[in-house]
Design brief:
about 15% helix, alpha/beta, about 525 residues
Length: about 525
């Protein structure tokens, strides 16, 4: 009732009428502004500029301007005739963003942060180079600059849907786009770098009424017209909004104090990716409402954009008994180089999407993965360390394994692989550790292993066959561990084995060796 008498528009805030939350906020700010300009009541017209919610104010102590006001300057510099327009100033309190435009921006640039998406929408306006003042009539982008960053940067999301309903896809896209931190200098050039603001409150439309989420002591709290309820972190807020179809309308981002610069933040596209991964496999240890780097098995590189942006580089989720299929979404983390999912209960195949990954280390050891040898792994040519030990893979080891030329440590033991050891293994000349034990392989230990002169550890066991002589390993002087157990090797032991000065562990048990042990073995320290 109080707002209905003070509103400058008679159609607003009447009984039995629902008004947009942004209209309520704008009316309150106008009343506060007018109270500092000695206007008798808010209904009176101001003599100041009022262009699209812009009210200039000469009062330095006006709370509305000091907290919410942002001086935005607009102009064009024609790309064709180089004519520049007069610079116009507006003081904005609310920054209106069409959700349809935001969705289109997100589809075009799915990896962009929320502040980048806001910039795309805000800077999308065009104006004609005015022929009346000597212009060429060409259409130009409007340049927007901001003189200084407001303490509270307020974003109004406009849902123009015609029938009043919002599609699940649009709502899902907008919720995914919203970030909890923005850099105003990205949205509006001209402000100081690292003008960081954090999301502190969100007004939503839900079930024909308005509710509010706000941060209190690090937790998001839901306020409605009856109760206050702790929701949890930002992910839980998003889940509630999507489940109950709550439309975010007004977003309040508060600036950091000068003495309290914001820490680096995780790239928002990667936050969305981690949310999907967490939902798919049931991870509860990632606090994605803050920067999760350094906890929950996540490690990041925070050196990007003058140490303001982090990218995930390492994920360690070993030994958690996760039972799910491997999420394809790991491929959407472009800086990920180490992934350890060992000792869980993952099942099914390795996703084809993983071929995009640039991993250096991968451990899938001790799961229930199945199917033929995962060909997708042979396409991750950056790998230097890979273990698929202790799964249920079967069939031949493919010749494409030779594509992993940078591989240094390869463990494919304890599966159900069959057939001979492929000659393509000879192409892995950087190998220092190779383990192929406990499968159903057949044939002989090939002589080509002798070409892998960097090998320090070689473990091969359980080769079925009619028998073969001892392979030529005479060039492997770096060898420390040599296990050729139950490989159907026959004949005598070569004397050069005793001359391997670095050899500490030798296992040739369960073969068909004959003859005496060479004298060179007496000097071994195994």
């Amino acid at each position: 009732m109080a707002l209905s008498t003070s509103s400058p528009t008679e159609t607003l805030f009447q009984m039995e009428q629902m008004n947009d939350a942004s209209e309520v906020l704008e009316a309150i700010l106008r009343c506060v502004h007018d109270s500092y300009t000695n206007v008798v009541d808010c209904h009176a017209k101001s003599h100041e500029n009022n262009l699209g919610g812009s009210w200039d104010c000469a009062k330095s102590d006006c709370i509305a301007h000091n907290i919410f006001g942002a001086d935005v300057f607009t102009e064009i510099n024609c790309y064709n005739c180089r004519l520049g327009s007069r610079q116009l100033k507006r003081t904005l309190f609310l920054h209106h963003i069409n959700t349809g435009s935001l969705q289109r921006a997100m589809r075009m640039c799915p990896n962009n942060t929320f502040d980048d998406l806001l910039k795309t929408v805000i800077m999308d306006g065009h104006i004609t180079c005015d022929p009346d003042v000597g212009g060429c009539g060409k259409s130009n982008h409007i340049n927007h600059t901001l003189s200084s960053s407001p303490h509270v940067f307020t974003v109004v999301l406009e849902w123009h849907t015609g029938n009043g309903s919002v599609s699940d896809t649009l709502l899902s896209h907008i919720l995914a786009a919203i970030g909890t931190e923005i850099d105003i200098s990205i949205i509006y050039p001209g402000t100081s770098p690292r003008s960081k603001h954090s999301l502190v409150s969100v007004a939503c439309f839900y079930n024909q009424r308005y509710i509010c989420f706000a941060v209190d002591s690090g937790q998001w709290v839901l306020y409605d017209d009856q109760t206050a309820k702790v929701v949890g972190d930002w992910i839980q807020v998003l889940m509630m909004c999507e489940e109950k179809e709550m439309q975010p309308l007004v977003l309040f981002f508060e600036g950091a104090k000068a003495a309290d610069a914001l820490p680096p933040r995780l790239f928002s596209a990667e936050v969305r990716t981690l949310r999907r991964i967490a939902a798919e496999i049931g991870i509860s240890s990632w606090n994605l409402s803050a920067n999760p780097c350094g906890s929950g098995g996540l490690a990041c590189d925070c050196s990007f954009n003058n140490k303001t942006i982090c990218h995930v580089t390492d994920i360690f989720l070993n030994g958690h008994n996760f039972s799910a299929q491997l999420p394809p979404d790991f491929a959407d983390l472009p800086n990920l180089i180490q992934l350890d999912l060992s000792r869980n209960l993952f099942h099914g195949a390795v996703p084809d999407q993983w071929a995009r990954m640039r991993l250096q280390g991968l451990s899938l050891m001790g799961n229930r993965l199945s199917g033929p040898f995962p060909m997708v792994l042979t396409k991750i040519t950056t790998l230097t360390n890979m273990s698929i030990e202790g799964n249920e893979f079967h069939g031949l080891i493919p010749p494409e394994i030779g594509q992993l030329a940078q591989m240094e440590k390869l463990i494919i033991s304890t599966n159900e692989f069959t057939g001979p050891l492929p000659a393509a293994l000879s192409l892995l000349t950087n190998l220092t550790d190779l383990r192929i034990s406990g499968n159903n392989l057949s044939g002989r230990v090939p002589d080509f292993f002798g070409k892998l002169t960097k090998l320090v550890k070689l473990r091969i066991s359980d080769l079925r066959g009619s028998g073969s002589s001892f392979p030529d390993l005479s060039g492997m002087q770096s060898m420390k561990t040599l296990v050729l157990r139950n490989c159907s090797i026959s004949g005598s032991l070569p004397p050069y084995i005793g001359d391997m000065e670095n050899l500490k562990h030798l296992d040739l048990s369960f073969n068909k060796l004959t003859g005496k042990i060479p004298d060179s073995f007496t000097s071994m320290e195994v």
